[in-house]
Write a structure and sequence with these properties.
hydrolase, Lysozyme-like, 6 helices, 10% strand, single chain, 2 domains, alpha/beta, six-stranded mixed sheet
């Protein structure tokens, strides 16, 4: 009888231990699942095609270095800590014409409002074509001349369009994907600004404005327009839980 009871107790003990172990494993599994669900809320890497069209050479890098010395007081073309994503449209109607324009080393003398401050040509980091294709022209680590007073802290995106009405849904989607990836690569990005907003001294980003020559000031621009930038902010929040300051 005693042997029988001992056997029963032994079996019950093993069953209890097994039961406790199964409960513990279940709890761990639930914790892992909860952790995984939380991680899904964080911006995940977005896979999309980016075709590279190089526009840099030794001459342009030297012009960029000189531009930065004259306008930001630093003899370097490096973009170390970008804070702003600045969105434009080209006015130039095609990708081919836009690339041809940006590939020039020196700015056109006809652009009298900015050519007197540097011979460096205007430039951009990314172009988004009307079908949503994304092209990289300048590395994220190199300064491009696309926004007076903010080039030292900004990554620029141009959208091929004659005006705001010419922008496409495909471009909006690609801007969302591109900015989500840029934020992953550059966690310090805090501001999303339309070119039409960059001259607004009431917005938070304006505290980053820098110009050695006080006469080199931003001027009003129409691109990409209030609707496109509002839609862009809304989709970044809805699809990637990303909110940027202005």
């Amino acid at each position: 009888m005693n042997d029988y009871l001992t056997t029963i107790l032994s079996i019950n003990s093993r069953s209890s231990l097994l039961f406790i172990l199964l409960v513990f494993i279940s709890v761990l599994s639930n914790c892992d699942n909860a952790s995984g669900q939380q991680e899904k809320k964080v911006v995940s890497t977005v896979d999309f095609a980016v075709d590279t069209i190089p526009t840099l050479n030794a001459t342009k890098l030297e012009l960029t270095k000189q531009y930065c010395l004259e306008n930001y007081g630093v003899a370097s073309y490096k973009l170390d800590s970008p804070k702003i994503v600045l969105v434009h449209f080209t006015v130039i109607p095609t990708l081919e014409e836009t690339v041809e324009y940006f590939q020039k080393d020196s700015i056109e003398s006809s652009r009298t409002n900015i050519s007197k401050f540097s011979q460096m040509n205007v430039g951009i980091h990314y172009i988004v074509d009307k079908d949503g294709s994304i092209y990289k022209l300048v590395p994220d680590t190199v300064i491009a001349r696309h926004a007076i007073g903010f080039n030292h802290v900004s990554i620029g995106i141009e959208n091929i369009a004659k005006d705001a009405a010419d922008l496409t849904p495909a471009q909006l989607e690609s801007n969302v994907k591109l900015i989500a990836v840029l934020k992953e690569r550059n966690p310090g990005l805090e501001y999303l600004v339309g070119h039409h907003e960059y001259n607004d001294i009431s917005l938070a980003h304006y505290k980053l404005f820098l110009a050695v020559d006080e006469s080199y000031k931003p001027h009003n621009k129409p691109d990409p327009g209030p609707k496109f930038i509002a839609d862009l902010r809304e989709k970044l929040k809805a699809e990637h839980n990303l909110t940027f300051m202005k």
